[in-house]
Specification:
mainly alpha, 2 domains, MetI-like fold, two-stranded antiparallel sheet, 22 helices, globular, single chain, two-stranded antiparallel ribbon, 1% strand
């Protein structure tokens, strides 16, 4: 009973926040479309789901997310072996650089690929601009780091003795990988692939900037239906499909993902240098470097191009409102706003994340307790897959009346961004807490330490690095969040992704150059944050 009460007490605040700022907005968005003239009308939703365009949108979402996931896994698994099981000069810097695309704002990813494959871009002759292939490449660019870090972290922790025994019995390297290593890596690969699929299916900015009018995903279709067409029934129908699909995927993934044995012996032998047999990893890593490096290089080069020459004119123009008053405030004002909002979103997500991580990581003493923890874990993962556009629009239509009239609150945008970052923070903190031997806490308690003292003396020394890493991830995710913020941010206080999108939509070379320069500034800021996280050596992406 005491453990159950403690579990409920720890989960009370996160559940209350999730109920008010997630369940209520999403339910409000769905009710707005499902209840017509005060009565429930599910037939209208069925009609929406059978529309030819809706079928095309759902199919393209599934197809593009599957293709992006497949490319990310095919490149990420061999690259993970090279970057986590082999040593060579510059390995740490390369691993950090390949992590940066994961936290780049999706709108920046879209702008970078447009600059690379557009008509005037270095690869414009390929004719990829506005194609489905460009979207898949953008999705793989955005998510390959998830596979590399998740599978790489699992690969580093494998006990080498079974593979060595199989090799001693005459198994070839391919047989060792197929029969010993791959089964051990299966949970990490399945987990990484499921998370990548979620991110691909909800990559709002990538599809919006690269798809144009020809391609639309469920995420961008919800945005267009709510903002341009005001067709709330269709938006609600797509939100229902998305929510059910994400819930089912999370449930399947939790069943397929095995829990790693914390008692497995880990190798302390220094990793060898690459050899001829590592050609798959070398090839995959080279392709990943090209996939990541070319768009970023094109983005930087484009930002430095002024007319027929080169210079910093686009960066100096960031202190203006652009040509023909494209913006209400300078880009520099938007950068300050983004940083301020990111600080608020970070402390919010960390506060909730610590509580949730404690709840889901403690050892269960009964089947009922284990089921409750599993249910709570799944609940707090829901923001990972639900459309941020749905969440943002839900905020507008549900948090507009007392006692929850928050439309004018400066905390509305940080709260939405904190919910988006919460699953990532939990998955950064929970493995560290779960790896602590419960007997240490019991020993501290037997010596008279209270719960807070036990946490400070036993948990906190283990948790401080993951806590800093979680803060870095939350800060970077907040800087680039676009879907929910596009509904909630005021015109006089826009964030950087919104400003970039506005500049792209306004004609003029100056506005486009400013968009490129602003994208470089935002990408550099997130890159610096992620380089700091990488120095902590916390495998944050490996625990989904």
């Amino acid at each position: 009973m005491r453990r159950s009460l403690a579990l409920v007490g720890l989960a009370a605040l996160p559940l209350a926040v999730l109920g008010v700022f997630f369940v209520l907005p999403v339910s409000g968005m769905l009710a707005e479309g499902l209840w017509v003239d005060g009565r429930f009308d599910p037939g209208a939703v069925a009609e929406v789901l059978t529309r030819p365009r809706t079928i095309r949108v759902v199919w393209f979402t599934v197809w593009s997310a599957s293709a992006g996931t497949a490319v990310a896994v095919l490149l990420g698994v061999p690259a993970a072996h090279l970057l986590h099981r082999r040593t060579f000069p510059g390995r740490g810097a390369l691993r950090a650089a390949l992590l940066v695309p994961f936290v780049l704002p999706t709108v920046v990813v879209g702008v970078a690929f447009r600059e690379l494959i557009g008509e005037a871009g270095p690869l414009g002759f390929l004719g990829f601009d506005g194609s489905a292939g460009a979207i898949v490449a953008g999705l793989a660019f955005f998510n390959v780091a998830v596979v590399i870090r998740a599978v790489g972290a699992a690969w580093e922790s494998l006990d080498p003795r079974p593979a060595e025994a199989a090799a001693a019995l005459g198994a070839s390297p391919a047989q060792v990988f197929r029969t010993v290593t791959l089964p051990a890596l299966r949970p990490a690969i399945v987990s990484a692939a499921s998370v990548v699929f979620l991110f691909c299916a909800t990559a709002f900015g990538v599809v919006l900037t690269l798809g144009g009018l020809r391609y639309s995903s469920v995420e961008t279709e919800i945005y267009l239906l709510t903002t341009n067409l005001l067709d709330l029934q269709a938006a609600a129908a797509l939100s229902i499909v998305q929510l059910l699909a994400i819930t089912a995927l999370l449930a399947i993934t939790s069943r397929l993902r095995a829990v790693p044995d914390p008692t497995v012996a880990r190798s302390t032998v220094r990793a060898p240098r690459p050899s001829r047999g590592d050609w798959p990893g070398l090839l995959a890593t080279g392709l990943v470097v090209v996939l990541v490096g070319l768009p970023i290089a094109a983005l930087v080069a484009g930002s430095l191009q002024v007319g027929d020459g080169w210079g910093l004119g686009n960066y100096r123009a960031l202190t203006t409102e652009g040509s023909r008053q494209a913006l209400l405030v300078p880009v520099t004002h938007a950068l300050v706003t983004s940083l301020r909002v990111a600080v608020d979103a970070t402390w919010m997500s960390l506060t909730l994340g610590v509580l949730v991580a404690i709840v889901v990581s403690r050892r269960s003493h009964s089947r009922t307790e284990r089921r409750v923890r599993g249910l709570l874990d799944g609940l707090f993962m829901l923001p990972l897959g639900v459309s941020a556009v749905t969440l943002g629009f839900g905020f507008l239509i549900t948090l507009d009346e007392p006692p929850l009239d928050l439309r004018d609150s400066a905390l509305l945008v940080p709260i939405a961004q904190a919910l988006v970052a919460l699953p990532l923070v939990v998955r950064t903190l929970a493995p560290a807490l779960g790896g602590i031997d419960d007997r240490q806490r019991q020993a501290a308690a037997s010596l008279g330490a209270g719960p807070l003292r036990t946490f400070a003396t036993v948990d906190l020394p283990v948790l401080w690095k993951p806590l800093l890493a979680g803060a870095g991830f939350a800060f970077a995710v907040s800087l680039g969040e676009f879907g929910a913020t596009s509904f909630l941010a005021r015109d006089e206080n826009p964030t950087m992704p919104i400003v970039i999108f506005h500049l792209i939509g306004h004609p003029g070379a100056m506005n486009y150059g400013m968009a490129l320069a602003a994208s470089v500034v935002l990408a550099t800021t997130t890159a610096l944050v992620m380089l700091a996280v990488e120095r902590l050596r916390v495998p944050s992406l490996g625990s989904f």
